[in-house]
């Protein structure tokens, strides 16, 4: 009902881009003289916060897992919502050359704006590690950080995606006796302003445009003719577009009767690419040709030739 099956992996790319921002953070432990004693690369994984909280707890007989080493970070996509403020014209389209076929082009309607909610979790067992990681993140969000995502490679579309830091909160999960491991969790909430793209369609390349102007003769009076008028026309006066052929002739419009459409062609306007061998991916111009026929031409719409 909705159309053909397609998958651009757009949401997957947004998740990967978000995680990439935070995959190279480090924590340094120093002595009183300021010398670095230990440098720890903070691991990053995808998953809900409760998963990482549970993994930091000590192994029990009922839950035989290895306690997760801290500091560490996790992130998750928590929701998405339509953004009506960034709505684009629904009938607008993007056009790109089809690299697999020189005789066709790819087209795609405008994307739909969506806001993606992300949360980043920082798990540490002492406050100093948490603030050290936090200070490596906050300066880049004022309050947003923009990344470029190669969203639709086949269309050559690369999108600048803002990522906005909305809030940062801290919680201390230290509960129980003195033997219980303490976990400090920083939760950072982000909003990513992304786009979701429809399917890509393939169409033929238009190599020639022909506009025929027909002028009915004096003997063709048994049908209704609607003539092209100017925008200056009103309810009292009618201004026609005139063609100078010795006499000033009016030009029939497409909504004339069938008999009018069978009138001979007096003028023809043709547009072709220049050069004529240009492909959809080439840089090309246009060649315009005007033809005038004293005797008129009978043009066959089906075959595209004069008869």
Summarize, please.
By secondary structure, the protein is mainly β.
What is the string of SSEs from the N terminus onward?
A: HEEEHEEEEHEEEEEEEHEEEE
Number of strands: 18
Portion of residues in beta strands equals 35-45%
Q: Would you give the CATH topology of the largest domain? A: STM4215-like
CATH architecture of the largest domain: 2-Layer Sandwich
**Ends apart, CA distance between termini:** 44 Å
Record the strand order, biggest sheet: 3-4-7-10-9-8
> How many whole angstroms does the radius of gyration measure?
34 Å
What is the CATH top level name of the largest domain?
Alpha Beta
Helix content: 10-25%
CATH homologous superfamily caption of the largest domain: Myoviridae tail sheath stabiliser
Shape: elongated
Q: Given the helix and strand composition, which structural class is it?
A: mainly beta
| Major sheet description | 6 strands, mixed
General description of the model:
The protein is mainly β. The chain has two domains: 10-202, 2-Layer Sandwich (STM4215-like); 206-306, no CATH class. It is built from four helices and 18 strands. It has helices at residues 10-20, 49-55, 127-135, 258-261; strands at 26-30, 36-41, 44-46, 72-82, 93-97, 104-109, 112-124, 144-152, 157-172, 184-196, 201-204, 209-214, 242-244, 248-250, 265-274, 285-297, 299-300, 305-306. It has a six-stranded mixed sheet. The chain has a three-stranded antiparallel sheet with strand order 5-6-11, with no helix packed on it. It has a three-stranded antiparallel sheet with strand order 12-15-16, with no helix packed on it. A hairpin with a 5-residue loop joins strand 1 (26-30) and strand 2. It starts with 9 loop residues before the first helix and ends with a strand.
